[in-house]
């Protein structure tokens, strides 16, 4: 129905507001805290907050935030997935905090949305509807896939207590020197058996599981501290900054230094 893009907004003009229609705040950069009824949280890139009509929307900028402020209506459409009961027009547990995991696809959609201003009103309106429906369907598909994967993992974990023990041990020792061969041996498993059983339970190898935790911690330290790469490597269980840089670039598709420069505000 209507859309405005706010670039690096330092504060909201009103700390709380009510709207006669549905509104969505879709974040491209920065973050803000929100509360709608009993539901509260923080929205960052990859998130959008949906607020129903006539509902008090409290919000406060956490860091300068760039976001799409969209007024919209809902029209039910057939969907083959399991989220029909969560359609915003009928879900009693609103507001909705939407989260997209495919950041590249989301960024691409936002890029096209920014270019709609060049078009005529009628064409712009049609494409706005298209991109909003695309965002909603992307969310639903990601949600269904994640839910299905979670159920599968839960089932597999229940069938293999040894892998639960292995995952717990890895979580406790992730940022130290880890010998996966010894961990497998402690469970009376050969390296191949251990890797296969772990992948069956968690959908990933023990090494990739360990690496994911280390890279996640490296991301946090890159953004929240002034540590050098060598210092971060030591905190994440790597021998040196060179090896961390190689693993980070392989997993994230970007070097640690460039990641820090691009994501820090």
From TrEMBL:
Pfam families: HTH_18. It comes from the Bacteria. SMART domains: HTH_ARAC. InterPro entries: Homeodomain-like_sf, HTH-like, HTH_AraC, HTH_AraC-typ_CS. Keywords: DNA-binding, Transcription, Transcription regulation. Residues 164-262 form the HTH araC/xylS-type domain. This is Helix-turn-helix transcriptional regulator. The lineage of its organism: Bacteria, Bacillati, Bacillota, Bacilli, Bacillales.
